[in-house]
Amino acid sequence: MRAPDCPGLSSTPVRPVASPLRLIHSNGRAMPAPFEVLGRGALPSAFAVTELATAAIGTAALALADYTRERFGVRLPAVAVDRRLASFWFGAALRPRGWQVPAVRDAVTGDYPTRDGWLRIHANAPHHRAAALAVLGCDGSHDAAARAISRRSGQELEDALVAAHACAAVMRSRHEWSRHQQGLAVAREPLFHIMRHEAHCKPQSTHPPASGRDRHAWPSATASTARPLAGLRVLDLTRVLAGPVATRFLAGYGATVLRIDPPWWSEPGMVPEVTPGKRCAMLDLRQDGHLAQLKALLKRADVLVHGLRADALARLGLGEQERQALHPGLVDVCLDAYGWTGPWRYRRGFDSLVQMSNGIAHAGMLHFGKDRPTPLPVQALDQATGYLMAAAALRGLTERLRTGAGVATRVSLARTGELLKSALGGDDTPLAPETDADLSSSIEATEWGPAQRLRPPCVVEGAGMHWDSAASALRSAAPEWPE
């Protein structure tokens, strides 16, 4: 298959990919044909991180191609992925011009030696930081935290931190995780847990009729093969990092994304990276009036993407069945850190913590001969899961076109980690360094200053990835859909 023309994608074809990542089933149907991979080289890792990046981005691109075919009655667009650009995107795509992205990490966040091993604390969020410091009984400096942690057992301290609603994980080996109750539970879970709901919309198999168009099936007459997601409304209740990656991908092909954050949330180091094409608003769901506003937004959304703890929406009266009742036909994509079953299904977690728990950081330490936890070179669990979430949303939209049914899909960082661990090694050729030719020629006028982004890592024939607005600050827009 010849790759569609795209300046910035390498002209060196490698091979088609037939990854298990692309097998997102919709009513028993697998994803379409494999995509073409271009470029050479890989990120340095004990695991096949570049292969994961290529496959995850390709999965999302294939899902978009299949949606385009179903939506517009055209042949399946060709898809290609540049593995080198995919690797770079798994790091960061934004390149500021004349300014710097704020630092991401709090001083307390990091890996610490304990009395009997290693423990990682994630304290970038103020409430997680406060909870951790309360357990440690020290001030907010890294050195003070290190002294307090060094005197304690890792498992005892992990238990105490988690009980206090802080975020922490001891370093386990792959073998230890494979025998752990949560490791066993995650290994039994599917990569995509798909739940179909009763059809409430009239299915549309090819072109929309001239009149009487079903709002759910055909939300906008402005959509085209060049901008296939135009007019689709995506309600984004996610934060660092997988969910925002998913909705950035959807916005890149025309979806209207409305991101909702609470008044206290801050992630200054990530917002410029993940908010192009999005409206960012504020709601405090602890207030009845704001919860009512969220329900009103949900009634008009085509897709809901959320990464709150597994029981959070249910405690607000918005469990899965309630969401479908509120908006029949909703495409619902849910993210969790440690999986949807097992004793840790409600545990707070982040990419770096999951890597500590499931043996990835330990395997990296052994692979590189180091004496401390060695994580992946990029936040690959977050990034890969984000593109899988985008694919799940698109497969849900395609299913709704075909059957009129709403679809809910669950994914988790831990399950993506199991997928990565099943693919040891890979191409060990170093990636060629980034050059100006890898950057988009357009200048993005973000709220922080001008910037460029890397060229898209994938191309779907006939549809360019670009954003209708520059990256914007959290809580900078009203919590409403544009008319």
Spatial strand arrangement across the major sheet:
8-14-13-12-9-10-11
| CATH class category label of the domain at 13-98 and 186-341 and 376-460 | Alpha Beta
Largest sheet: 7 strands, mixed
CATH fold type of the domain at 13-98 and 186-341 and 376-460: Rossmann fold
Total beta strand runs: 17
**What overall geometry do the principal axes of the alpha carbons give?**
globular
CATH homologous superfamily identity of the domain at 13-98 and 186-341 and 376-460: Crotonobetainyl-coa:carnitine coa-transferase, domain 1
Radius of gyration (Å): 22 Å
Q: Which CATH architecture of the domain at 13-98 and 186-341 and 376-460 is right?
A: 3-Layer(aba) Sandwich
What percentage of residues falls in helices of 4 or more residues? 25-40%
Give a brief description.
With 483 residues, the chain is α/β, with parallel strands linked by helices.
Would you spell out the secondary-structure blueprint of this structure?
Layout: E1 13-17, E2 35-38, H1 49-72, E3 79-82, H2 83-89, E4 94-96, E5 110-113, E6 118-122, H3 126-136, H4 142-150, H5 154-163, E7 167-170, H6 174-179, H7 181-188, E8 193-199, E9 233-237, H8 242-252, E10 256-261, H9 271-274, E11 278-282, H10 288-299, E12 303-306, H11 312-315, H12 320-326, E13 331-336, H13 351-357, H14 360-367, H15 380-403, E14 405-412, H16 413-421, E15 444-446, E16 449-453, E17 458-460
Parallel strand pairs: 2-3, 9-10, 9-12, 10-11, 12-13, 13-14
Antiparallel strand pairs: 1-2, 3-17, 4-16, 5-6, 6-7, 8-14, 15-16
